[in-house]
Amino acid sequence: MAQTAVTDRVRIAKADDPWGGTLLPREDDTYVAAALHRRNLLGVWKIAPDRQIAPHGPEKETGYHPDSVAAWDANTLVVAVEGAGLIQFWHIAASDMQKTAELRSAFPVRDLVTGDFDGDGHTDLVTAPYNGDQLAVYWGEGDTRLSAPMFIPAGRSPWHPVVHDWDGDGRPDLLWAELDTGAVKLARSEAGRAFEVVELHRVSGTTPRHIAVGDVNRDGREDIVVAVEVGAAEVLLATGEGGLQVEKIPPQSLGYVAAGVMQDGTVVLGEDEQLLLARRSGAGWEMRRLPAGSLPTPLRVADIDRDGIEDVLVFNSAGGGIDIQFGPLWERAKPLE
User: Fold this and answer.
1) Alpha carbon 330 to chain centroid distance?
2) Which residues of the chain have pLDDT under 70?
3) Keywords of this protein's UniProt record, alphabetized (predicted)?
4) Which of the four, 10, 121, 167, 175, has the lowest number of CB atoms within 10 Å?
5) Which residues fall within 8 angstroms of residue 272, CB to CB, at 6 or more apart?
6) How many alpha carbons fall within 13 Å on the CB side of residue 245?
7) Which residues have CB under 8 Å from 302's CB, separation 6+?
8) Closest CA to 152 of 140, 129, 136, 163
9) Contact in structure between 159 and 176 (CB atoms under 8 Å)
10) E strand or H helix that includes residue 332
11) Cα angle, residue 93 at apex, residues 90 and 99 outer, rounded to 5°
């Protein structure tokens, strides 16, 4: 049965702990997919422009401990099943989902992302280890066929890579933060299916988690926001000389576990049981808050209901299910006391 939103915050999959998820825009609706870690399930919901929410068929068994979901194409999801050591492909049919392919992963996968890194027109897959010091790249060979993995060296625990054309050469690159080293790194995509790994920064706090890329100070250059679990979030503002100027957003309790950047430069940060919205104001940051669940990570900023205003999708990974906070977010958020 469809659920109608009666407020600007909607919670779906209320009792679950979604460790990862994605948005999949399709036709006139947007689909939300989540790896329901504790129950070993893949869930998909359809979000209509009128904010009605309905499950897209029954939840599906994946095997032990799914951790991450990404869009492969408009009709296909790729899922990392960390505990079982599997990568799965799921096709979204008219009213259900079917698993169409499955392969053994090179290592237990914490997170995965997709993109065409070699420019051959086929989607490629990058996986990050639950516990390790390298990323694996599977080159797409058409449909859901993949090459044997190629490995990119990294420091310990390079979780949550982000796909972004950082150097503006038309090829997507990879950026990530390493939980155990504190490093923020770039793997620059080069011709011939090669990557050059560069360390951009080391955070001063403990355990950087998700990063986000966006123009925070509205100067036409892309910046990086690093969510730091113990300490202040670090905003790496790109300078005209190719350097990075560091600004910090203080935590309201311990620190942050997720980050996003809106089109107007507003930073969205996930902190336990709340989202913090931050805007640069003079020499500091103006901040407001919205409610969230437990350990709100990851989060996705997008216009989910297609009304021209950005919303935020939050996967409360330690409990509380999935939240959608519909915009305008800044106007709805409460100033800090």
Assistant:
1) 21
2) 1-7, 15
3) Signal
4) 121
5) 253, 254, 257, 292, 294, 295, 296, 318
6) 9
7) 23, 30, 310, 311, 312, 313
8) 136
9) yes
10) helix 329-332
11) 25
